[in-house]
Amino acid sequence: MLRSTIKVRHHAMPDVRIIKKYPNRRLYDTEISSYITLEDVRQLIVDGENFEVRDAKSGEDLTRSVLLQIIAEHEQDGQPMLSTQLLSQIIRFYGDSLQGFMGSYLERSMQLFLDQQNQFRSQLNNLLGQTPWTMLNQLTERNLDLWKDFQAGLLGKIPGAGGAPGKPPGDKGGRKP
Fold first, then answer.
1. Are 49 and 42 in contact (CB under 8 A)?
2. Distances, alpha carbon 44 to alpha carbons 29, 70, 173, in Å
């Protein structure tokens, strides 16, 4: 029984992609056997890849420092997400008795935010018929059906243009000779 539990746990663990960081600051993705950039690492995060960044010589885990570097670059180059005031408040928690609590609090807050965001997106997709393209396709199909009905009704009212809807062409509704 214990062996099957271990096997299930082993199979449930996702493979961790290893990225090696060399002294020249280059990052090497062992899965694709190629050097990558910080932007490539950011894309791995966006894609939901599970990875670790390790020092090429010592094997030390450098994942956190690389993630912080990505955040720093995006805060510097783009529209900042973290205000100076927020960063200052976070820095004040280092060395404080609540430092350990703050990390778990921020993680839980972020998870709650992500859960609410997913719920909102799901509700919005249900409201819109899954995607804007689906809604647009449904609208186009409905307009096409209305146009066909309009044309059929119009042609049915013009004498000699095919008769009324539901009657064979040439049938004027009179008696048979």
1. no
2. 11, 12, 72
Contacts of 125 (CB under 8 A, 6+ apart): 131
Alpha helices in the chain (DSSP H): 2-12, 38-46, 63-77, 84-93, 99-128, 132-157
What is the Cα 136 distance to its own chain's centre? Answer: 21
What is the structure's pLDDT at 157? 64
Domain positions in the chain are 1-81, 112-159
**Which residue has tokens 């090696």?**
20
Q: Which of 65-74, 87-96, 131-140 shows the lowest mean pLDDT across its residues?
A: 131-140
Residue located via tokens 């309009």: 150
The C-alpha torsion from 88 through 92 and 98 to 101, rounded to 10°, is 30
Instruction: Label residue 19 exposed, middle or buried (CB < 10 Å: 0-12, 13-18, 19+).
Output: buried
Q: Model pTM greater than 0.85?
A: no
Rounded Cα distance between 115 and 58, Å, is: 38
Contact (Cβ atoms closer than 8 angstroms) between residue 139 and residue 147: no
Tokens of 40: 């490539």
